[in-house]
């Protein structure tokens, strides 16, 4: 009888070694970028979505982004003047917290600042996002909603029924109020009815230059 793969032991040492190698690669990649590019910007982002961020990457095709690994970014940069990889980068490391990212680039500062100042994209909210407006569904027939979807909507908490082949909402239903923190079911309802409720945006905080300069933006 073949041995089940599930019964095979996991070699923890190999897993630890692989994780360490991945972290070292990330740190070295950031340091290589510091050696290559003339400027590094630290920014904060809200309501990040991979498909929306692709628009940002497309605008800076010759540049390099790092985000989502704050501790590794700080290790690569160095947290103190004594441990920093290059003069002044510890000041950028001090701004890496929360939803932070780094852009390393040779693009003119004017282009970078203007892009971040004006860039926004609308996307679907995820749990924890704050509703930027109220949204409610009126009682009656739900347009463009086939009867096969009705059990799904009912599972989301909507008071629905199928009548004469149409999906009907039995009462008015408030999905969210403006300023309310959204839960998973609310987000799924909003997405189903094609209501984008999250604005993906980025804010620049500071820039470092290869000559050791640092400026808050």
The coarse silhouette is elongated
Largest sheet: 6 strands, antiparallel
Number of helices: 7
Mean pLDDT: 89
Structural class: alpha+beta
Mind explaining what this structure looks like?
This protein has 217 residues and is an alpha+beta fold. The protein has seven helices and eleven strands. The strands form three sheets. Strands 1, 2, 3, 4, 10 and 11 form a six-stranded antiparallel beta sheet that branches. Strands 6-8-7 form a three-stranded antiparallel beta sheet. The longest helix is centred in the N-terminal third of the chain and has 25 residues, at 12-36.
List keywords for this structure.
217 residues, alpha+beta, 11 strands, 34% helix
Summarize the structure.
By secondary structure, this protein is an alpha+beta fold. Helices cover 34% and strands 25% of the residues.
Task: Indicate the topology.
Layout: H1 12-36, E1 39-46, H2 50-59, E2 64-67, H3 70-77, H4 89-93, E3 100-105, H5 109-118, E4 120-123, E5 135-137, E6 140-141, H6 150-155, E7 160-163, E8 166-169, E9 173-176, H7 184-192, E10 198-209, E11 214-216
Antiparallel strand pairs: 1-3, 1-10, 2-3, 4-10, 5-9, 6-8, 7-8, 10-11
Helix pairs in contact: 1-3
């Amino acid at each position: 009888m073949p041995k089940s793969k599930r019964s095979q032991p996991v070699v923890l040492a190999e897993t630890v070694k692989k994780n360490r190698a991945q972290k070292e690669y990330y740190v070295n990649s950031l340091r290589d970028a510091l050696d290559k590019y003339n400027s590094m910007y630290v920014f904060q982002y809200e309501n990040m979505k991979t498909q929306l961020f692709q628009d940002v990457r497309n605008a800076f095709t010759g540049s390099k982004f790092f985000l989502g690994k704050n501790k590794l970014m700080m290790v690569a940069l160095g947290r103190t003047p004594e441990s920093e990889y290059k003069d002044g980068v510890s000041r950028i490391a001090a701004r890496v917290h929360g939803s932070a990212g780094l852009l390393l680039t040779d693009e003119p500062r004017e282009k970078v600042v203007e892009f971040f100042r004006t860039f926004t994209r609308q996307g679907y909210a995820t749990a924890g996002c704050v509703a930027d407006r109220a949204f409610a569904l009126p009682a009656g027939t739900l347009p463009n909603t086939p009867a096969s979807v009705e059990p799904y909507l009912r599972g989301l908490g909507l008071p629905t029924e199928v009548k004469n082949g149409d999906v009907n909402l039995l009462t008015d239903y408030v999905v969210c109020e403006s300023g309310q923190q959204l839960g998973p079911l609310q987000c799924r309802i909003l997405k189903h009815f094609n209501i984008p409720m999250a604005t993906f945006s980025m804010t620049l905080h500071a820039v470092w230059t290869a000559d050791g300069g640092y400026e808050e933006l």
